Amino acid sequence: MLERGEVANSWRRERWDSLRLLTPNWLSRLPGHEYAGSDPDDYMTMGEVVEFVERYATVTRAPVQTGTNVTSVRRTDDGYHVTTSRGEISCRTVVIASGACNQPSVPQFADAVPASVRQVTPFDYRGPGQLPDGGVLVVGASATGVQLAAELRRSGRPVTLSVGEHVRLPRLYRGRDVLWWMDASGVWDQRHDEVEDLTRARRLPSPQLVGTPERSTLDLNALTAMGVELVGRWAAVRDGCALFSGGLRNVFSLADLKMRRLLDTFDAWAAGRDADVDPPERFAPTQVPEKSRWQLDLRSGEIRTIIWATGYRPDYRWLHVPVIDPKGHLRHEGGTVDSPGLYALGLPVLRRRRSTFIHGIEDDAHEVITHLTQHLAAKS
Amino acid sequence: MTKGTLRDMTTIDNGVNVQALLDAREALKGAPEAAQFTWRASSKWQNGVHSTTRVQHFFGLGQEQSHKSEAVFTADHPEVFAAEDNGITPIEYLLVGLASCLTAGVASVAQNRGIQLRSVESTVEGHHDIRGILGADSDVRNGFNDIKVTFTIDADASQEDIEALVAQSQKRSAVFDALTNPTNVSVEVA
Ligand SMILES: Cc1cc2nc3c(=O)[nH]c(=O)nc-3n(C[C@H](O)[C@H](O)[C@H](O)COP(=O)(O)OP(=O)(O)OC[C@H]3O[C@@H](n4cnc5c(N)ncnc54)[C@H](O)[C@@H]3O)c2cc1C
């Protein structure tokens, strides 16, 4: 197992200070390694995640070789040739577990933002103290965007949030964590070959959730109540002005409708069971701002900082095997990559919907490694 | 996602060949060049603010294409603008485009989701402060301040499914996108 940094590197280096997991402790589990503390319904801080993963590495005696950067993987006649910062390796199979979120993804027009505005990605961001005073434009309203918008608003800064398509979820539904429902009702068990539009499912943005001890909902209505100004999806920069889509109302409708449909699924599932849950509930539609701006002059000084919460993408620059699609994603079928002996783990909806999350690895690893051992057996 | 059963799919008919659209989507995924279309219109000044615009030919799927027949659109201004009112105003053509695009979207999405439509009607209102175009107030924009579309739909579906149809039709609408997002426009003199 080659790791360029340390065990749990992404949780150590690529996250902001206040982040907690959005999956509750009982659900943030690894194969045979569950949360053992006293707050199963709470959410781990980054320090706790690092500790949890480290303990797992120790307990399982994972043969991790840290400080080893993989710089190239090439196909050979009977396997792969791997070049690392610490030497060369020849092997018959390779499992790519380098993560789905190696780089923040930032739109092209970021180049056209005036130099007077500071631009920050979630990889650079640690906390509000590091930003200049004054207005912040947070771009993107998925988990990262809503969490940073709330934190920056609480720091006293005026915050504008640019909202495109998003996934709205309440933190609690009928008295249980909404992710308990995802898990129990089987929504997360949907397999990759059953998903109607797999490409879409794989690039679905993260849900608007935050893990806090209060277990509070952080949807757009919560942000509006805090005084965050909502604008449409950022479409372009023209003459130093940010231009936002006028289609804000429809992205609200789409998210509200999808949430209602999901809650219907939960209710239908619960109806036939004596699950320990409260009565069904419905949430107020997303409030449409009376006036939403479609233009913001970035030279006026109103906005001092832009935070690009516009998602993450993998980095396969070291992978010299032609298995990357034009959008930069790995071509694979449930973790079996389109090159004999090459496998992937830890990608969104790799084999089922839960693959996107830490606990999804259990079944995925089992199935992918079964395939891998068969491949080895067939060749020997 | 609302999904019609197989039986639904074969018995409902909104007159949209969804299969052809789905096939095209698959085919064009691997052939982005063929997906490049150019729509064209040619306009001629008549008199005053009256003009005539003709539309027939376009480019797509790698070659020149043509509508079955030429369509001719007359634009003018109403008498309250001291014009002859030979036709609707140019900005009203945007409403025509938006309404017809969203309506086509509703029919296609309904077909795809196995929803039989009985009637689909909509009204579109564009709110326009004409002080902008008159140059009477430089803080007022030239175009619409906002547009409101109201659909009345009679179909074999719940209110929620109908709302989802209308939301999805906006999500996939060319004109909705063209109106809600900025577009580079270059105007030259030949
Ligand atoms: C901001 C954020 C919040 C998240 N919150 C949650 C949550 O609350 N709950 C949840 O279940 N999931 C969450 N996820 C998803 C979760 O991160 C993944 O499910 C999980 O981390 C995948 O683990 P991994 O080991 O496959 O990938 P990673 O954690 O990304 O680990 C990949 C490792 O590979 C190393 N690496 C990469 N390239 C090379 C190379 N060329 N050579 C050597 N080493 C390399 C990296 O250093 C890294 O340590 C979150 C993701 C993000 C980005």
Automatic annotation (TrEMBL), chain A:
> Which organism was this protein described from?
Acrocarpospora phusangensis
Return the protein name. FAD-dependent oxidoreductase
Pfam families named among the record's database cross-references: Pyr_redox_3
Entry keywords, A to Z: Oxidoreductase
* Recorded superkingdom: Bacteria
* Keyword Lyase tagged: no
Q: What Gene Ontology molecular function terms does this protein carry?
A: flavin adenine dinucleotide binding; monooxygenase activity
Q: Which InterPro entries match?
A: Auxin_biosynth/cation_transpt, FAD/NAD-bd_sf
